[in-house]
Amino acid sequence: MQPPTNIRSNGTRNWVAALVVLTLAHPVASHGATADADRLTVLEKKLDQSLQMIRDLSARVHELEAQVAQQGTQPGRGSGEVPNYAPPAVAKADTTQRLEAVEQTVTQLTAGAAQRAEDPGLPLHGFADVGVGNHNATFPEYKLADVGSLDFFLTPRLGAHTRALFELNFEVGDDGSVDVDLERAQIGYQFADSATIWLGRFHTPYGYYNTAFHHGQQIATSLRRPRFLQFEDQGGVLPAHTVGAWLTGSKRAGDQRVTYDLYVGNSQRITDGTLDMNNPGNTHGTTIVGGNLGLLLGGALDGLKVGVHAFTTRIEDQDRVPFILARVRAYGAYAAYDTDRWEHIAELYFFDDYNLSGQPGTHRSEAGFAQFGYRAGSFTPYARYERAALQQGDNFFAAQTLGSSYFREALGVRFDVDLKSALKLELAHTHDGDRDFATYDEALLQYAIRF
Amino acid sequence: MLGRSLTVVLALLPAAIGVLAHGADLYVICNPGVSISKADIRDVFLGDKQFAASVKLTPVDNIAAQALFLERVLKMGAAKYSIAWTKKSFREGVNPPPLEGSDAETLAYVRRTPGACSYITMVDTSGVVVVSRY
Hints:
Chain A is an alpha+beta fold. Chain A has 5 helices and 18 strands. A 16-stranded antiparallel beta barrel of chain A has the order 1-2-3-4-5-6-7-10-11-12-13-14-15-16-17-18. The longest helix of chain A is centred in the first third of the chain and has 36 residues, at about 35-70. Chain A is elongated, with a radius of gyration of 31 Å. Chain A starts with a helix and ends with a strand. Chain B is an alpha/beta fold. Chain B has helices at about 1-25, 40-45, 65-75, 80-90, 105-110, and strands spanning about 25-30, 50, 55, 60, 60, 100, 115-120, 130-134. In chain B, the strands form 3 sheets. A 4-stranded mixed beta sheet of chain B has the order 4-7-1-8. A two-stranded antiparallel sheet of chain B has the order 2-3. A two-stranded parallel sheet of chain B has the order 5-6. The longest helix of chain B is centred in the N-terminal third of the chain and has 22 residues, at about 1-25. Classes of the chains: A alpha+beta, B alpha/beta. At the A-B interface, α1, α3, β3 and β4 of A face α1, α4, β6 and α5 of B.
């Protein structure tokens, strides 16, 4: 007759083993469908390691059972004919505790193996979005369905101090062709939390929106950027990218955190009515110089960031002879409030530009937007007002295709389909000033994902 | 008989583990070469603090205890944690913490990796420094 303790132990061992096999079998089956050779190899290796550990743990269970049985059959503990298998209370408690620890370890191990197998281990990420509407969200002359962009960014794991960030973006231009942009190509050295120096092409750190969201449409609440902050080749009037050097960092001060950015790079030019960041360098060696100082508040104002920014650059319009030049001096302030419940963003830009050719003089222009969002579960309704009053006597704005004044009112709602995808609906009213005085209304739908 | 018992055990196991895990203590641990305070933990696991003196920090997530860590220490859900790291990666090129699958694996990783910090529910904390207990 099998002793009761052994029956219990065998039962425990059996269901532990069955649980392990069932749990391990699940990810194996799932990954068999992926047909991804690399991931399968990694998974197999992890499973082999897991199985080895399980074998070791099973051996330990056997060992513990043997100890229990041995204690139970020691002479003098029972009546002589019928063994007394009840171990001493302390030993039993110890064995139970050990078995529970083994079970917990096995459970964690198998659960971890299943989840980690889903981690590709490759720091490649990206965003994509598509849309439909009575106008194209970027090029209003088009209607119906459109492809937004497909954006990949890579953050290779390098040494302790060296960092790198590369971003490749595929987007459809106003002529319908698919353009490929090396959005960012920056390699940096991190001295400490308070100082990283980047070299290469980066998102120009003015204001908040340009670096916070840029092509990451899925992480932005609204369906599109404010028009004056659009990318250079999509009608934006500011240099969204800079090729040069960027010193950035942050420092905690109690509950608050101070952030800063200082940058210097190639000054931009205007070609075909569009700002160009001069990727290879510029012909006259002129530069853009700027900075951004921010404060992340804590305590009752946790989630609020306020800051100021400024830059100056000399712009050439290479389509005209002699070049039309302008000295651009931009400065402004911003505030962003981002909590579990609210997302509000407001930015102001002022321009005191000076014409260096043609009609001389200083021209004052302004642009800004305010956006308010309320997070209600999966839904985030939002409202935005944006306005740009751009002087057409300013060579900088006059030379740009979309360098005219405008205002736009928008109401929208974002619906989080799941953690990595969102549907956005926006109704907008836009009025162009200065040049064509066009007014149009839009109803836009966008499906945006991240991966 | 065994099959029915197995079914019952399998059905009850997740709930039991959840109850056990919820009641367990959580230890935030680091490699002995790391010196950080309890106040630094949030910044370390959200990528805002990447150095402790000259030591490059390597935060590691422990899948087995992550839910407990997010609830008790960072006070945020898994979705918010994921989005926070997506934004951090996109904006600053910082990679999210790598994953370990169990307390034992996490402990072993932290012991052998300079700059590593993580969290476990097991009492054995030999070979690491305990930054805080929750």
